[in-house]
From TrEMBL, chain A:
Keywords on record: 4Fe-4S, ATP-binding, Cytoplasm, Iron, Iron-sulfur, Metal-binding, Nucleotide-binding
Subcellular location(s) of the protein: Cytoplasm; Nucleus
One of the record's GO cellular component terms: nucleus
Protein name, entry field: Cytosolic Fe-S cluster assembly factor NUBP1
From TrEMBL, chain B:
Binding residue positions for ATP: G62, K63, G64, G65, V66, G67, K68, S69
Protein's organism: Acinonyx jubatus
Lineage of origin: Eukaryota, Metazoa, Chordata, Craniata, Vertebrata
Residues involved in [4Fe-4S] cluster 2 binding: C235, C238
Gene: NUBP1
Entry keyword annotation includes Nucleotide-binding: yes
Protein name, as recorded: Cytosolic Fe-S cluster assembly factor NUBP1
Length: 301, 305
């Protein structure tokens, strides 16, 4: 019964059910076939997390021998279906769980977007219900043998992030890639996200700075549209001793490709932005190669 | 409509507040205590508290990073330029509170008095409240789940002593979740003029904006209109216009035509905006003749007309 203080029986029951050792172990078992798990985070919205997640998936999957999975846990604003050109696709259930939607034989995607009747349907859920969905995504999706599972997150440091980290606490997570743009208003939120990672003992693979400069296609003048008034990600990374994985310039092709659901790496392969992305993807692969999963690795205490 | 948890037993049921699905619902304790039939008393308290506030405007977007806080800050600046207009700016983005930095108020602290919390005053006629003022350091992460965030929002609305205010602007985080539901629920007895919805031109943003518009309809929140930020970039050297975030489906203009919602204005990309925000200054003062500043002024006028 709801008392004046402390946990009621039903509080305890829900907490235990939601984050029980059993659930966490089930998820650990389910994800045993997944070699590397990468979270894509940012304190700030609109800096390019989903764009980056989508293109990290595309880039890795260009090698048809690499099995890639992309999980979108942004429940309110799931951008991944559109960016991957998979709008309107539906999720199927089988004996072994939910099947992801396959863009290629080696690239499977899951998002709440696939569960909506229409892309304009608003998912207006409070925290506990979002947590339930994330649990299902991690426990009930049949990913199969996967080399890289990329988890795209919404902005912030709230339910979705806590739940993802808690549910994954027994499964080895390689680390987080943190996305930012150059201005201090973004970096401020990124420092909070880094603080979050430290608190939950999530390793940080590095930081990506998006929207670094814009090069005028006509006169080639470089403009800093989001000025790095405090030195941008470069200074932040030096201060906090975190790797800067790369800087990506603004490029209208990126937005166009995302809206069309295509890979920008294919649409504009020689652009500075595509080359920047490829460099970043390579660094992430190197990081994962150096940090192989151990048998009984536990992330959080 | 998912403002109650799935499996909600109903506020009048014997299981009210006691079911597993009640966890996290802001009314859980109320239901469990047996007073489930009555609405949260905070709603009436907030209605009383905000009686001295003439106009209330929510600034929303489904999408992050489109310029909600930038717009909220400059709407506040613009309105407060008339020293006879009392303006209040409330930042309910608990995880990523940008307003203190944008208003040049970092490091300020909130004071308590007999009549409640005092907002931080930038000018005599411009008061600001944000969770940012409650942190020891701006880099402190607020890692709270929904219920705790809801509690903070209730306090902001019920316990802040705004005084006589002409415009209360409420800046929100991206999405359609706890903060938005709570703000609307707690304000449900106080008259809210409406919502301004911010977007950028590309379809990935518009998609989330349509969800936000859907949210507004569901909670019966009037929509004042849509603002399209980051419309074009004009090269300062050769004046070529580039659409950095291409409106592949017609941008906000087409969306507003389709959904019969006013388009309040389009704001071009301008490096001065980011610079002013980082420095905590008003871009309307820093670059008053720029196309972006003129666009903002037009929008402010349309919003409050």
């Amino acid at each position: 019964m709801g008392g004046a203080g402390g946990l009621s029986d039903s509080d305890r029951q829900w907490s235990e059910e939601a984050f029980s050792r059993r659930t966490i172990e089930e998820i650990k078992e389910k994800l045993k076939t997944v070699k590397h798990k990468i979270l894509v985070l940012s304190g700030k919205g609109g800096v390019g997390k989903s764009t980056f997640s989508a293109h990290l998936a595309h880039g890795l999957a260009e090698d048809e021998n690499t099995q890639v999975a992309l999980l979108d846990i942004d429940i309110c604003g799931p951008s991944i279906p559109k960016m991957m050109g998979l709008e309107g696709e539906q999720v199927h259930q089988s004996g072994s769980g939910w099947s992801p939607v396959f863009l290629e034989d080696n690239l499977g995607v899951m998002s709440v977007g696939f569960l909506l009747s229409s892309p304009d349907d608003a998912v207006i859920w409070r925290g506990p219900k979002k947590n339930g969905m994330i649990k299902q995504f991690l426990r009930d999706v049949d990913w199969g043998e996967v080399d890289y599972l990329i988890v795209d997150t919404p902005p912030g440091t709230s339910d979705e992030h806590l739940s993802a980290v808690q549910y994954l606490s027994a499964a080895h997570v390689d680390g987080a890639v943190i996305i930012t743009t150059p201005q201090e208003v973004s970096l401020q939120d990124v420092r909070k996200e880094i603080s979050f990672c430290h608190k939950v003992k999530l390793p940080i693979i590095g930081v990506v700075e998006n929207m670094s400069v814009f090069v005028c296609p006509k006169c080639k003048k470089e403009s800093q549209i989001f000025p790095p008034t405090t030195g941008g990600a470069e200074v932040l990374c030096q201060d906090l001793k975190i790797p800067l994985l790369g800087k990506v310039p603004l490029d209208p092709h990126i937005g166009k490709s995302c809206d069309k659901g295509q890979s920008f790496l294919i649409d504009a392969p020689d652009s500075p932005a595509a080359l920047a992305y490829r460099g970043i993807i390579q660094k992430i692969q190197e990081f994962c190669g150096l940090h192989q999963p151990k048998e009984e690795h536990l992330i959080s205490s």
